[in-house]
From TrEMBL:
ADP-alpha-D-glucose binds at residue 51. This is Glycogen synthase. Its EC number is 2.4.1.21. Residues 326-469 form the Glycosyl transferase family domain. Belongs to the glycosyltransferase 1 family. Bacterial/plant glycogen synthase subfamily. Pfam families: Glyco_transf_5, Glycos_transf_1. GO terms for molecular function: alpha-1,4-glucan glucosyltransferase (ADP-glucose donor) activity. NCBIfam families: glgA, PRK00654.1-2, PRK00654.1-5. The lineage of its organism: Bacteria, Pseudomonadati, Pseudomonadota, Gammaproteobacteria, Pseudomonadales. It comes from Stutzerimonas tarimensis. Residues 38-272 form the Starch synthase catalytic domain. Keywords: Glycogen biosynthesis, Glycosyltransferase, Transferase.
Length: 515
């Protein structure tokens, strides 16, 4: 069979991946096709132990959801927060030094629910004060290229059977730029293991200086625009896109948006080629089973759509925590990384309108220093009506979703967004920009309020619609009831991943058969 014929077969198979359940043909190649596949997730965050945003949530929830069908294990860096988490770590393997990347040990951590996490242990690279990507002041670690190339190469070493671990993955699933070199090393080392690369945020590309290629064992042949070169630099994100057998992103709408100049961050042309070949798809994120307002132990009081009394208890708690005066007006929440993407500057622009109409705002977030300062200044401008906490606290975030009436999410772009899904479940109606996954998950006028332009004027209209609905309790409750009934649990989102894995493994089987 010619390469073109193999590709055509693979493409056919991949296209089947996204056919609705009722019409999807059953793929049967061999009896092993039906058994659990070994999948290694490579990710820089894992919400159980360390998280800066939605990638951490997905890395914790998706393997567990897929674990019902496959043997999914994680590989994460051994950050101080991981090594000191209290979960026992047993040393099970080792990878050798390569170019400028040091040798590391591999530990195994068994989470209480049985999820197996491999930890790349290398104190000189990972055990530091600060976050996954930077120091306590938010400055990127200068050796991030080595830190995350080392992670990616370790994944390829495990897949190659070079890590002294008897478990060898049949498929590699890498997430965002820190794991972008996983498909690349797998290809450069001649592995037949297929790889999936998931883009959670195209805005972060992992750009590195071209001169680092020797340190990172990147072949010169990869340093051109068809592979990982990006305007004179090397892009770890582009490497993931270039070398993965299939690229996914986290909503159908964003999968389309990133092929346009407006959202493509200079990679839209490259992504259009992938899309034309059927090698780019959008699979919307889910949320994990813990997001149930009646049973969430983090809340001050539980509630559900038939009895919302507990919501008021959480609202009173949030008002108190943020220094807001008691009020019968609407409570707006912001739970967000404080970065340009999230449009916090737009929220600063509508704050006065909210306060003038009797509303209050509670903000929790951390990120860029000037945005942190701006939210502090906003709170100082409206004492008792706007409160801001700069920091990261999952408990408080959950109580804010539970206590607020509306969630403000005016993102400039949003690959999927989990915050709006959490808010919907907890009866807080999103006021959000019609972009990416927000457009896919919020129903305008039914479960939230969408606006089109990334401008204060457009946003203000949506905010005023929300305030208006708040004046009509029956209407508000009808919207809340519908929002709280939305089901975004992973159990419903894993089918496309499952189909994709099977398609790629089938493709490899066909190629192995004919070579
Ligand atoms: N200060 C704080 N304290 C406590 N919790 C906080 C917090 N700030 C944020 N969070 C939490 O972080 C998560 C944010 O997730 P999102 O998916 O909404 O956005 P993020 O941009 O981080 O994720 C990226 O990856 C995800 C996953 O694919 C995509 O959904 C998204 O569009 C993309 O931008 C939520 O769990 C939220 O509650």
């Amino acid at each position: 069979m010619s390469n073109a014929a193999v590709n055509a077969l693979a493409l056919n198979t991949l296209q089947r991946t996204f056919v609705p359940r009722s019409t999807r043909p059953i793929l049967k190649v061999s009896s092993t096709q039906d058994s659990k596949k070994k999948v290694l997730f490579v990710t820089p965050e894992f919400a159980d132990l360390i998280k800066t945003g939605g990638l951490g949530d997905v890395s914790a929830a998706l393997p567990r959801a897929l674990g019902k069908r496959h043997d999914v294990r994680l590989l994460i860096p051994g950050y101080a927060q991981v090594m000191n988490s209290g979960h026992p770590i047993r040393m099970v393997g080792r990878v050798e030094a390569d170019a400028g990347m040091p040798a590391c040990r591999i530990g195994r951590m068994d989470m209480p629910d049985g999820l197996i996490v491999y930890v790349l242990v290398c104190p000189e690279l990972y055990e530091r004060d600060g976050g996954p990507y930077g120091d306590p002041h938010g400055r990127d670690w200068p050796d991030n290229p080595v830190r995350f190339a080392r992670l990616s190469l370790a994944a390829a070493d495990i897949a190659a059977g070079h890590a002294a671990i008897s478990w060898i993955p049949e498929l590699l699933h890498a997430h965002d730029w820190p794991a972008g070199l996983v498909p690349a090393y797998a290809r450069w080392r001649g592995l037949s293991t297929p790889s999936v690369f998931t883009i959670h945020n195209l805005g972060y590309q992992g750009l590195i200086d071209m001169s680092l290629r020797h340190t990172l064992a990147i072949p010169d042949s990869a340093c051109h625009m068809e592979e990982m070169e990006f305007y004179g630099q090397l892009s770890l994100l582009k490497a993931g896109i270039a070398y993965a057998d299939h690229v996914t992103t986290v909503s159908a709408n964003y999968a389309h948006e990133i092929t346009t100049p407006e959202f493509g961050y200079g990679l839209d042309g490259f992504l259009r080629v992938k899309a034309r070949k059927g090698l780019l798809s959008g699979i919307v994120n889910g949320i994990d089973d813990s997001w149930v307002p009646r049973s969430d132990p983090h809340l001050i009081a539980g509630f559900d759509r038939n009895d919302l009394s507990g919501k008021a208890v959480n609202a009173a708690y949030v008002r108190d925590l943020f220094g807001l005066e008691p009020s019968s007006g609407p409570l707006f929440a912001v739970v967000s990384r404080l970065v340009h993407q999230k449009g916090i500057d737009l929220t600063l622009g509508v704050a006065e309108t909210i306060v003038e109409h009797g509303g209050q705002i509670a903000i929790i977030g951390c990120g860029e220093e000037h945005i942190e300062q701006a939210v502090h200044d906003l709170a100082a401008r409206f004492p008792g009506q706007v409160g801001a906490h700069v920091g990261f606290c999952e408990n408080e975030a959950r109580r804010m979703y539970a206590g607020s009436d509306f969630l403000l999410m005016p993102s400039r772009y949003e690959p999927c967004g989990l915050s709006q899904m959490y808010a919907l479940r907890y009866g807080s109606l999103p006021v959000a920009r019609r972009t990416g996954g927000l457009a896919d998950t919020v129903e305008d006028g039914l479960t939230g309020f969408l606006f089109d332009e990334p401008s204060v004027a457009s946003y203000r209209k949506a905010v005023l619609r929300a305030i208006n609905v708040y004046r009509y309790p029956d209407l508000l409750n009808a919207m809340r009831t519908r929002a709280m009934a939305t089901e975004f649990f992973w159990a419903q989102s894993i089918e496309p991943y499952d189909q994709l894995y099977h398609s790629l493994l089938l493709q490899r089987q066909v190629i192995a058969h004919i070579v």
